[in-house]
Structures are given as C-alpha cells and as structure tokens.
Write a structure and sequence with these properties.
By secondary structure, the protein is of the alpha/beta class. The chain contains 18 helices and 14 strands. The strands form 2 sheets. It has an 8-stranded mixed sheet, sandwiched between helices. Strands 11-10-9-12-13-14 form a 6-stranded parallel sheet, with helices on both faces. Helix 17 crosses helix 18. It binds uridine-5'-diphosphate-glucuronic acid (UGA).
Amino acid sequence: MRIAMIGTGYVGLVSGVCFSDFGHDVVCVDKDAGKIARLERGEVPIFEPGLDTLLAKNVEAGRLSFTLDLAEALKGTEAVFIAVGTPTRRGDGHADLTYVMAAAREIAETAKGPLTIVTKSTVPVGTNREVAEAVREVNPDLDFDVASNPEFLREGAALDDFMRPDRVVVGVESARAADVMAEIYRPLFLRDFPIVTTDLESAEMIKYAANAFLATKITFINEIAALCEKTGADVREVAKGMGLDGRIGNKFLHAGPGYGGSCFPKDTSALARIGQDFASPMTITETVIEVNERVKRRMIEKLRDLCDGSFNGKKIAVLGVTFKPNTDDMRDAPSLTIVPALIGGGADVHAVDPEGQREGEALLPHVVWEADAYSACKGADLVVILTEWNEFRALDLDRIASCMATAKMADLRNIYDAERASAAGFGAYVSVGRRPFP
Ligand code: UGA
C-alpha cells in the first residue's frame, strides 16, 4: 500500500520508516526544507537507536522517500497520516492543534481521493471529527474517511515498540477505513499482536488515559519514595514487593527525579484541560502534575543538604541531562529544573551527557561540558547522577571518589547503593527512597 506521512518529527519519522519496513511504499512530507534535504542524504535528525540503519535499508529498497511536495506524496495514496506536533498551548495547557488542522486543510486542498486520513498526533477527544469537518468544508467532493491511530512509542526504544507493540489502537467509523487500517497493520496482525479497533473518541481517549496512568504510577512511587526516606524503608524493595502482584506489575515503578519528556508533561496537562472543559475534573491527573513538580524541587533540597546548606562556590558534576537515556531529547527534563537551581545558588556545574550536550548547550547556560564522567568529577564537591545512561551504570567508583575534592554522590536514579559508595571511598551517598550514608 502507498502511504503518505505528514511530519518527520519523532513519531512521523519512526512510523514512516517502520511502515516502509513492513513493505509499504511510504512518502514522508515535511515543510522544513533543511530536514528533507538531510533525510534525502540519509541523515537522521533525531537520535534513536537503529533508525538510521532501517531508514537507509528502506530508501535503498525504493520503499521510502522524502519530499516537500504534499501533492506529489498524495498521488496514488490510500492513507495519509498526520503526525505533526501538538505542543502545549501557551497559557492554558491545551494541546495546540494548529499544525494538525493546517495539515487536514492542506490534504483537503490537494487530495483526489478516495483516502483515509489518519491522525497519529496525540489529539484531544473530538479532534478526528473536527478534522473530518475541516476537510469537508474545504473540499466537499472528496471521498474520504478519518481514523485515529495514537502511538505508544517510547523514545530510545521506538523501533522495538513499533515492531513489537503491546497493542495497536485504531479508531474508525466506517468499514472501509477499518479495512485500510487492517491492511496497513497486517504484518503485526499476522504475528498476533493485538489490534484494538474502536470508535474515534475511545481511541483518542485511550492515548491520554494510558499516558496519564503511567505518569500517575511513576508519581505514586516517587511519593512513596519520599515516605520511605522518612521511615527507613527501601523503595526498591517496596516496588519489587508491589510489582510482583500481577494486578500492579513491576514496570514504571522506578523512583527517580520526576518524569519528563515530550509526552507525559504535555499529555497530563492536556487531559486536565479536557476534564475542565467537560466539567469532569481530572483531579488525580491534576495532582500528579503538581506532585511531579514537587518531586523535582525535593531533589534540589536533597542536593542542597549534601552541600551543607549552600551551593555557593561548590563544583558539582552532573551525569546526564536528557529526560531519560538513549535520547537527545531534553524536553521537560528534570535537569532543566535542577541544574539552573544549582547554578543560581552559585555552583560551578560540569556536565556530561552522551547525546544531550548539543541541546544542553542551548538550554543550560553557564554549564561547562565535559567529555566523560571522570573529567566532570575532577575536583568536584558532589557528583549527581541525573540520567541512567548505560555508561554511568558501571563507573569505576574508586577512581571517581579519589579524584573529587569531597567525595559525595547523589544517585537520583538508584543505580548504586550506600555500601558500594562507602567501600569506594565516598564520604556521603544519597539516592531516592533509600537510606542515605552516613
Ligand atoms: C511515553 C510512553 O511511555 C509511551 O508509551 C508513549 O508513546 C510516549 O510517552 C508518547 O506519548 O509519545 P517516553 O516519553 O518516550 O514515552 O518515555 P518513558 O520511557 O515513558 O519515560 C517518561 C519519563 O518517566 C522519563 O522521564 C523517565 O525517566 C520517567 N520514568 C519512567 C521514571 O521516572 N520511572 C519509571 O519507572 C519509568
């Protein structure tokens, strides 16, 4: 099947590449000429493990191409996906639908039909109907259906999530759209991955409910972690004991410095707004948003305590600035709250991140960027592990402790433990939800 993908951001590019790997003919469209030129040269503008190889393979096979020209992309196409950004609208927390609706109108102006217009961008309940109305308004003669197909990819594991999903969610209103979507996802259906076919509104709601639930789960364990610290319990043991209950599950129960990224903060905020708009308050989600902010601020106080009450004049090594490992994405990363507080308090921050430096340089002024953890820790008063990149999981702690001015560690991802830190020569070690040392 020939598919057009509008938007070569994270979701659009990963989906386009993976659909072409299924054997479909995919044309990715974007308005950004620089981006299209880079993609045509085989350069991938985002960091996602394996994406460059899969892209090259499918371009080589003649199944994947890139263009600025929507009309060209829509020629002979049975399905067009809208995968443009839906950022949080400034001021009110709503999802900004400007790009989605603009894409819908452009499709209407250009398409000849019959066509299924599939929204992959995360959009509030009711948006697919608005897309249909907008298309009908611009081109009343167009023979088209709409479909909602939210994505559940995790950055850093996106290819695996796409190729081996827990489920695919498809919202449709007509048998014809259902058939088109079934054909697109046939390779997954044949391998018994569940395809949930539902109505448009439910599909839209599933996406927000799933992300808000996961954000709630993380926030719950983060709040339990704070209580563990006060009571002497160990949050890792607590999470393990809880997670073995099949009804709870052990995933997304890692306590840390708060969730970040391009999805949870944006989608929880949008869901809260949808609740307000429909006079059906999302009280739990609203609380989760508030508690997550509190979690990040709690980390700052933890670090301040380790610095004897003041960051002033302290050299602090920060390991990891991206919101999680295996991405260069820093959107809403806890580092954006924590690092400025250190610098604002007078600390000299030396940071290292395997992929985050380029974004970090723009977003975190006054940080000194180092090549590796050892150079960052040289002469430091405190080392803070903010992101659990693999290369920070097996550090030579003896070497780190011996090169620091005062060997103190804040392990905000619970990678190490007090015994190990103490044996390596650290004088102080704190983590999240576990007993500190000394
Ligand atoms: C998330 C969802 O996991 C995907 O299913 C969804 O498709 C995606 O949002 C989206 O809506 O596009 P992502 O933002 O890439 O994916 O990252 P996650 O792996 O979910 O992590 C989000 C944040 O939660 C990170 O800051 C991470 O460090 C934090 N986290 C995650 C924890 O603090 N503890 C955990 O146990 C798990």
